[in-house]
Amino acid sequence: MATQATAQRNFSFLRIAIALQTLTIFVQATSAGLLLSTSYGETLHSAGARVMYGASVLYVLAAILAWKPGGGSPRPILHAAGFIILASVQVLLGIAHIPSVHLPLGVLMFGLSLLALSRTWHRP
Fold first, then answer.
1. End-to-end CA distance of the chain
2. Positive or negative, the Cα torsion across 94, 26, 54, 82?
3. Residue 85: how many CB atoms within 10 A of its CB?
4. If you average pLDDT over residues 77-90, what whole number do you get?
C-alpha cells in the first residue's frame, strides 16, 4: 500500500515536471517573439533558456524517481534524456545564432513535450 502511494506521488511529480517543461518551452516561444520586437527580448530569452534547461533536468529527476522506487517503466527516463540532448543542442544553436535550425527545433521540442504530457494524462 505504501509502495503504491509512493509510486503515485512520484508519478504526479513526473506529470508536474513535464507540464513545467512544456510551459517553459512555450514561454521561450513568446520571448523569441519579444526578441525580434523589443530591446529587452534578448535578456528574457536568455534567462528563459536557463529556466527551460532547468525544467528539463527536473524532468530527468522526476523520471528517475517515478521509475526506481515506484517500479515504473524506465521509458520516461529515455524520453527525459532525449529532452536534455535536444535542450543542449537548442542552447548551442541559440548561442551560435543559427535560427534556421533553432526555431524548428523549438517547435519540435514543444510538440514532443505536449505529447509526453498527454501520455501522462492517458496512463492506465
1. 18
2. negative
3. 10
4. 95
